[in-house]
User: Which sequence fits this backbone?
């Protein structure tokens, strides 16, 4: 199985500041035939299901604010929130679907400093 | 609008089975696979597998392969997940989600299954 490891486990950022969450996969999730990274990012708030933010590592889901961006390729990925808002407090997960089982990272808890 | 609505919370005894439904609306059911994900208390999301809603083909995570069955009722636009041989470690919220290429774009609200003697 591909192991997804996120860092840090938790993060406290001041309102309006940048938040950066990293995700590393134990093997590449870049599919060479279409040059797509099979990596998605989700946001989960308490008592709610996850919400898709970013897919193909860097494509923002429609309706997601443009302060959210994804980058990276191969085994190393980053989710960046350019200017933290109060409503961004949540747990963030990365997920790979390059191979079965489609594994998730352990989550990063984002809080306001 | 797209909606996935799951059945309500269940309490089961060890060794029993549970069947969770996921009723979809707002899109063509057979155009998107349905994925199932488990989240135990305080744990990461865990992928259980998926079902092709066009033909009923399934793919199960090896972790659940021996105990889980996914089915669909295309006339009702509904998917089902049945987990047997329940144990206390199966206490979790179970989610269904619609798969679009690249991610799971719509999720059910989750169904809490509590396994307790």
Assistant:
């Amino acid at each position: 199985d591909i192991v997804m490891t996120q860092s840090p486990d938790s993060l406290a950022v001041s309102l309006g500041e940048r938040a950066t969450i990293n995700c590393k996969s134990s093997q590449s999730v870049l599919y060479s035939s279409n040059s797509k990274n099979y990596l998605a990012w989700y946001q989960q708030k308490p008592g709610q299901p996850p919400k898709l933010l970013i897919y193909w590592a860097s494509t923002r889901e429609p309706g997601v604010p443009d302060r959210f961006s994804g980058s990276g390729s191969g085994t190393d990925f980053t989710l960046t929130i350019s200017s933290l808002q109060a409503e961004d407090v949540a747990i963030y997960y990365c997920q790979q679907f390059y191979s079965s089982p489609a594994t998730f990272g352990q989550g990063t808890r984002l809080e306001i400093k | 609008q797209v909606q996935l609505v799951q059945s309500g919370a269940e309490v089961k005894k060890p060794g029993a089975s549970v069947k969770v439904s996921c009723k979809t609306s707002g899109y063509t059911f057979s155009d998107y696979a349905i994925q199932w994900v488990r989240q135990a208390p305080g744990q990461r999301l865990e992928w259980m597998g998926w079902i092709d809603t066009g033909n009923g083909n399934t793919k199960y995570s090896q972790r659940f392969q021996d105990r889980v069955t996914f089915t669909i009722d295309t006339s009702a636009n509904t998917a089902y997940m049945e987990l047997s041989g329940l144990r206390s470690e199966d206490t979790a919220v179970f989610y269904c989600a619609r798969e679009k290429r690249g991610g799971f774009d719509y999720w059910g609200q989750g169904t809490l299954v509590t396994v307790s003697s």
Summary: The interface with chain A takes residues 35, 44-47, 59, 61-63, 95, 97, 100-105, 107-110 of chain B (CB under 8 Å). The first strand of chain B starts at residue 3 and ends at 6. Chain B has a mean pLDDT of 96.
